[in-house]
Amino acid sequence: MSSSGLVCPECGSSRIWLRGHLYTNLGGKQRYICPECGRSFTPKSSEILSSEGPIPDRQICVSEGESKNLVKVEPLDSGLPGATKNSEIKGKLVDFSWMMKKQNYSPETIRTYSSSVKVLRKRGANLLDPESVKVVIAEQTWSPNRKSNVIKAYTLFLKSVGLTWEKPKCVVSSKIHFIPKEKELDALISGCGKKTSTFLRLLKETAMRCGEAKRILWTEVDTERRLITLNRPEKGSNPRVWKVTTELIGMLNAMPKEGPKVFGPSLVSSMRTTFCKSRKRLAKKLQNPRLLQISFHTFRHWKGTMLMHQTHRPYYVKEFLGHKSFRSTEIYITLERTIFEPSSDEFTVRGVKDPDDIKRLLEIGFEFVCEKDGLAFLRKRK
């Protein structure tokens, strides 16, 4: 923030920023910092410093009858190879966030990408020198997924400043999702606070992404018909509507209605922090370290796997989860086959004649075997 009428007593620059809060031990005077030379100073309350050039004497008035040596503050990037001025990079980071905002990136993506670029700078990279950034990325012990996200963030940052680079190679290998037991999810739901518990129950029944659940409005909750509608999905997914249980509707009705959003104006990151604390406490209390592997997104993976097992209808699972591509749904076919691999050859067999009964049994996972004496025989593994 600049301060009109003040100039730096060292270099004469009129680009002056406020530095922190009022220093009450200095008589309530405000300190300032010059981004050009790094000087920190407190001007006299009864005068405006001259802008005609550097002041030879580095003593300035702090309060009547007292003086204080000027403190030299080194720019944050000082000493780094190929470092740029702190003020220049600071401005480009602001422009980067604003560019993502104009391009309609989600708030969570803006926060994540901005944070990734700032971490690179904090680790010693010159953000305007891609080779410097490559060195910093190579030195980190990040997971392949983390490196991939940082590379994506920096690529977008370079685009915002009109530069390009040859991205470093980063192979992200797919892995099988952790699917907990239902009783483990229920233990987390019952062990958290009212708001977090309701949020988790919503994730369990609808398989929404946490960002989608966080933006649900009260007008999208039909308590009478027990319907919840999602009209603003993430990642290009399809809008969806679910019929939920009476228990979830009761938990939602118990929530305070303090705004248009069901879960208030707080960020997803804030709710995630609260959830992680509760998860750690419950894992210790229940002596179950598997709980530590459960994240918000784990509820979505669990629901997709359970639906695949209950229906054996991949297209239905695809529509329930809102996937644009069937490739995103295929993983749940593999998970279902692995987790629920039959341990015996015992079946539940039904012999029905009515076409509606046949259709109903096929919808819940029964397989057609044969037809005899006017009856259709279907079976389902126990």
Radius of gyration: 30 Å
The span between the termini is 69 Å
Share of residues in helices = 40-55%
* Main sheet characteristics: 4 strands, antiparallel
Principal-axes shape call? elongated
Q: Please identify which CATH superfamily of the largest domain we are dealing with.
A: Intergrase catalytic core
Total E-strand runs = 12
Mean of residue pLDDT values: 82
User: Biggest sheet, strands in spatial order?
Assistant: 1-2-3-6
Q: What's the CATH topology name of the largest domain?
A: hpI Integrase, Chain A
CATH hierarchy: architecture of the largest domain: Orthogonal Bundle
Number of helices: 13
Order of helices and strands: EEEEEEHHHHHHHEEEHHHHHEHEE
The fraction of residues assigned to DSSP E strands is 5-15%
Number of domains: 4
- State the low-pLDDT regions, or none: 22-26, 45-84
Q: At the first level of CATH, what is the class of the largest domain?
A: Mainly Alpha
